[in-house]
Design goal:
Number of strands: 0
Order of helices and strands: HHHHHHHHHHHH
Shape: globular
Number of domains: 1
Helix content: over 70%
Radius of gyration: 21 Å
Amino acid sequence: MGSLIALIHASPWSRELPAALGLASISALYLLGVARLWRHAGIGRGLRGWQVGCFVAAIVTLIVALLSPIAAISEQLLSIHMIQHMLLMIVAAPLLAAASPILAVAWALPTGWRIALARAWARVRPRPRLSWQPVFAWLSFALVLWIWHIPALYQAAVRHPRIHDLQHLAFFGSACLYWRVMFEPIGRVRLSPAAAVVHVFTTSLHGMLLGVLIALSPRLWYPVYQRSAGRWGLTAIEDQQIAGFIMWMPVCGVYAVIAVVMLAVWLHRAERAGEGGAER
């Protein structure tokens, strides 16, 4: 493990200009929008300080996932590729959802554009939108996760940069939609803590199943890593087992922690409601 960490430190950072420009642009728009909103409404109004902190943490996580040596090594080791995907899906995505980026970016726009956007939003908001529904968010997240781990598609993403970009976009987009229904503070449709527990727990179950299948499989799922894994002192099957265990245990542990927190919030609210009813 020590030698692997040393090699990661020695590996170069990615020079993917589109990713770097994209992260820089969204960061500039978000921070400009927050500055304008707080100047208009007061510091901490509309967007809280902790939300800005979540945004900064999300951007840092995206930089680590997409531009650090992790991005280069992910093309050679399945286990590092798995870490990269988990950073996108269960770290950066929920942080970004909690940061309410759409509100901040809207305030970064010129006043006329912002007013027109608000009017357009008011016209379409009452209409039901499939993408706002928690069941759709859960289902799309599950389908994206399983479909992109089909060996043919996964290996195509490793071999072809454009397909790889599409894979990352699918993972990150479906994850943002999935976490939005729990963590978006101003979301139109947001799950209650009780429903969020079910939302997260069921996701952890199918994620754990995929991790178990990858970790315990006697055959190689992704032969594309067969040659490159040896450069890191691993056989391809060992690399696959590590990747499966990463999805199985640490990742499902994160889901479990989030479910416990949601359950605690739910019980706390129920207790306070009970005390309020008793007083009345």
